[in-house]
Amino acid sequence: MLSGRDYLREARKFTTSQYWNTGVRITTGVMLPTLLLEHFGLLAVGMPFLWGALFVSITDAPGPIHHRRNGLLAAVAFNSITVLVTTSLHDYQAFLIIEIILLSFFYSMFGIFGNRAQAIGTLATVIMLLNLVPHGSYTNPLSDTLLIMSGGLWYTAFSLLLYRIRPYRLAEQAVGEHLIAIAGYLRARASLYREGSAVDVSFTRVMEEQSTVLKSQEQANEILFKTRQFVADASPRSRSMMMIFIDSTDLLEQVMSSYQDYQQLHRTLGHTGLLNRFYDVILKVADELERIGLIVQSGSAVRDDVSLVISFHELEETLKQGRAQANDPDEISSLRAMEKTLSSLRRIANLLQRLVSYTRLEIKIPTTFASIVEENKIVVAQPISWEIILENLTLKSNTFRHAVRLTVAMLVGYGISSFFSLSHIYWVLLTIVTVLRPVYSVSRQRNIQRLGGTFLGALLAATALYFISDRAVLLAIMIFSMVMSYSLLRMNYLGFVLFLTVYIIITFHFLNPAEFTTLIEQRLLDTVIGSVIAGLAARFVLPVWGREEMETSFREMLTAERNYFDAAWQAVLDKTTQIKGYKLARKDVVVALTNLSDNFQRVLNEPKAIRQAEQLHKFVIASHILTGHIAALSREKVSEELSGSQEAITLVRSIRDEFKLTENNLKNTSEFAPDVPEEIAMEFSRIPRQLSIIYTLVHEIRLISEKAGR
Question: Got the DSSP string for 620-631?
Fold first, then answer.
């Protein structure tokens, strides 16, 4: 149960985050001209200006400043062109339908180029929908277009000005958020040590937290390595921020490292109380990491040092007592693995203290800073070209299938809205646009959240309007709801819809106070109609099932694991090996593992049960465990004699063969192969322990792939 202190920490975590910062920025950028227009009695005339500012601001996702600038300008251009075309076609129903078809499809294809481009396309579609019918007694296409453009340019200038005032703020928030995400991942891994915990359930939590870590890592990586200010700037602050992030990637690998078989661990040590002691200490380490991340996210220096010496000493004494009393070989083996885990925790604590020193600017940045940045610079760019678009004009492309699905749903929604003469035709279509996503399970989840958020928001708005008549109080509620909705836009869709509904209903109440009850009823009805259409389209119009992509995910996972193993073994043989190649392999395996986990979770939410789901679940968990042991292998200190022994060479070759046989099983290109000869397994005691465990895990994955293929 959370304490008052925990709630305060969560509140601080949110209010210092980029999400809250985004919500405040969007609200300020829209409300400033709103209040100004209201003061001069020009609010009704200036609505297109406010739309222009709003629908450009929502595309202003965190990222390198030149990406943000280019994205904002692109949004201004597409929004302006869309408004000009749409308002010019008000009197031509047939041409409006053609426009809906062409622009819905065209803007949906923007998803090929990433989340920022997808947001630009979605908001351009939204602004098309808002202008399908004239607003007011007179509409001038040219003046509306100029107002939309002016509003977008106003917000662009406002956002870029804020960046110039605080150029480090976004990077601090991104790096701090990454550290906080790693702390959450560490807590998930801590649950593997809690006595009585189910390993499978704990690994499900690990999968979820790892997805969060990867998203935060990719964002921080892009902001830092694609912004010249952090790559080339000589200022201590920018360089310290870069070093914090670089060390955080090593910290993540240390957290991922595994030294034991968790099932055996609970079987041999579950009665000793040792596991709960480790669980408590790991939680303390996670708390320290989150504390540092929160302060970095706040833009401050960490004052207090990391103090975990006493906890580590107590663990060490407990381990000594356990070793003195242990007789069972498996128990002794588990205790040795726990000693390595304790050493790993000490290394994590040392890394945390380095992060603290970086925030204080106490550590002198190495003269080889440029080479360190180059070694860690792993940025994959997605070029914008017609070739990529043409390559995706096929049913094999999920983006293309989504574009067709959305276009069909939009036509159906427009037809139903027109047939029943719904007052706010765009609400039905807006629901369809915001609910439908390329993958069925995500669309289904958003549909449920859209309905729930709309009903709860309407209830809250109705309650507020029934009991509150003071315009100043209602304005404060509206502004707060606006800040909250856009703060939650990228982190909690249910919360976003809830506060958005409150904000929209109160806004319309200001414009037409006499009809807010009718407005709420229409909002709910239109949302239900749009949700039903979106749900049917997601289910029956070229659906994309996660189960159809599982085989691809497995193959990518195996390739990434094999490359990671090769890089880790090379690091064992030669500590001077190319660092960037190893880190690239490490990044690839984390991405592949996260994609595999996310895809499997989506499959579980699909209407049809997947064949061999139990075996696939075992495959995912075994892949997580394997990645941890490969990470631990890369840090092994192995003598040249042992690493170069014939037994080690044979086992490494056998591991690679197991990878190859597993890939063949997935491709159905070979029959089931026999196990590795018994004499190799008998030599495990003369080979590095991590290498032996890795062989066992890869062999297990191969057996799982055989069962899954039957």
Answer: HHHHHHHHHHHH
Phi, psi of 308 (to 5 degrees): -130, 10
Residue 43 DSSP SS3: coil
Q: Which residues contact 156 (CB under 8 A, 6 or more apart)?
A: 56, 69, 72, 73, 76
Spatial distance between the Cα atoms of 400 and 392, rounded to a whole number of angstroms: 6
Which residue carries 């899954």 as its tokens?
708
- Nearby residues of 428 by Cβ (< 8 Å), 6 or more positions away: 413, 416, 417, 422, 526, 529, 530, 533
- C-alpha 299/C-alpha 174 separation (Å) is 11
- Cα-only R_g, the chain: 28
Per the CB < 8 A criterion, the answer to whether 457 and 505 are in contact is: yes
Those residues whose C-beta lies under 8 Å from the C-beta of residue 30, and which sit 6 or more positions away, are 50, 53, 54, 57, 155, 482
pTM of the model: 0.90
| Rounded average pLDDT over 627-641 | 79
The closest alpha carbon to 627, from 187, 195, 175, 189, belongs to: 189
Looking at residue 35, the DSSP 8-state letter turns out to be H
pLDDT for residue 331 is more than 70: yes
d(CA 546, CA 604): 9
Gap between the Cα atoms of 626 and 7, Å rounded:
36
Is the pLDDT at 378 greater than 70? The verdict is: no
Q: Which two tokens stand for residue 347?
A: 């290394």
CATH architecture, range 169-376: Up-down Bundle (1.20)
Q: d(Cα 23, Cα 487) in Å, to the nearest integer? A: 4
**What CATH topology corresponds to 546-709?**
Methane Monooxygenase Hydroxylase; Chain G, domain 1 (1.20.58)
Give me 544's structure tokens: 């994309």
CA distance 152 to 577: 50
**Roughly what angle, to the nearest 10 degrees, separates helices 440-467 and 516-540?**
170
DSSP-assigned states of every residue in 250-297: HHHHHHH---S-HHHHHHHHTTTSHHHHHHHHHHHHHHHHHHHHHHHH
Look at residue 288 and tell me whether its pLDDT is greater than 80. Answer: yes
Confidence band, pLDDT 50/70/90 cuts, at residue 682: very low
Contacts of 121 (CB under 8 A, 6+ apart): 78, 106, 107, 108, 109, 110, 111
Token pair of 153, please? Answer: 């340019």
User: Taking Cα atoms as reference points, which of 600, 594, 602, 622 lies closest to residue 612?
Assistant: 600
Instruction: Give the model confidence (pLDDT) of 394-433 as tens digits.
Output: 988 999 999 999 999 999 999 998 888 777 778 899 999 9
Rounded to whole angstroms, how far apart are CA atoms 498 and 517? 17
The helix-helix angle for 274-298 and 262-269 (nearest 10°) equals 130
d(C-alpha 609, C-alpha 612), whole Å? 9
DSSP letters, 123-182, are HHHHHHHHTSS--SS---HHHHHHHHHHHHHHHHHHHHHHHHHSTTHHHHHHHHHHHHHH
Q: Where are the domains of the chain?
A: 1-165, 169-376, 546-709
What is the pLDDT confidence band of residue 684, given thresholds at 50, 70 and 90? very low
Confidence of residue 683 (pLDDT cuts 50, 70, 90): very low
Q: Coil, strand, or helix at residue 526? A: helix
Which residues does 70 contact at the CB level (< 8 Å), separation at least 6?
none
What distance in Å separates the CA atoms of residue 456 and residue 494, rounded to the nearest whole number? 10
Question: C-alpha angle with apex 486: 485 to 488, nearest 5 degrees?
Answer: 70
d(CA 392, CA 531): 27
Given this chain, do its domains 169-376 and 546-709 carry the same CATH topology? yes
Give the CB-side neighbour count of residue 596, counting CA atoms within 13 A.
28
The whole-angstrom separation of Cα 66 and Cα 148 is 22
For the chain, the distance separating the N- and C-terminal CA atoms, rounded to the nearest angstrom, is 46
